[in-house]
Amino acid sequence: MIQDEYERTKARLAEQRRSAMEMVEAGYQAQLKALELYWSLQSEKGEVAHSVVVTSSGPAAVPPSGQGPLPAGKPAPRRSAPEVNADVRATFPLFPETFTVRDVYQAIGYQPYRSALYLSLRKLVQEGLIRVLEPGSGHRAVVYRKTGASDPSRIP
C-alpha cells in the first residue's frame, strides 16, 4: 500500500463513520419525536394510552423458554441488589435441593435483574451454602445444589 492509497482509505473510513453517526442520530431524533408526540397526545386527552411500540433494528427481547410473558396489567417489580439478596435468603428454604434460577424466580415471586440475582447466588456459593453442580453453557442454566450448611437468612 502506498501513501496515497492509505490516505484515500483513511478518508473513506472517516466518511463512513460520519455517515453512520448521522444515521444513528437521525434514528434517535425520530424515536424522540415519536415519544414526544405520544406524550403530548396522552396529556391532551387526560387519559392513559395503551402502548407505544418503538421499533429498532436490534433483536427483540424474548422471554426465556418455559417462561410466559408477564401479566399485562402488572408491571414487573424491580428491586435493588440488597433487596433481591434479602428475598433470596428469606426464600432459600423453599428452593429444591437441586435448583436453577427459574426455581429462584418461582420462590421469590418475581424475576429480578439478572446481575442482582447472580450476585446473591455468588455470595451463597462463597459462603458455602450452595455449590455449582453443573455450570451453565449457552441456553443451559447453571444448576446449583444446597450444601446443607447453616440458614442463609441469618447471614447478612
Taking all Cα atoms into account, the compactness measure Rg is: 24 Å
Can you give the helix content as a percent range? Answer: 40-55%
Number of helices: 4
| Measured distance between first and last alpha carbons | 63 Å
CATH architecture of the largest domain: Orthogonal Bundle
Oligomer status: single chain
Number of strands: 3
According to CATH, the homologous superfamily of the largest domain is Winged helix-like DNA-binding domain superfamily/Winged helix DNA-binding domain
Poorly predicted regions are 48-52, 58-71
| CATH class wording of the largest domain | Mainly Alpha
For the biggest sheet, the summary is: 3 strands, antiparallel
Class inferred from helices and paired strands:
mainly alpha
Q: How many domain regions?
A: 2
Mean pLDDT: 80
Shape: flat
Strand and helix order: HHEHHEE
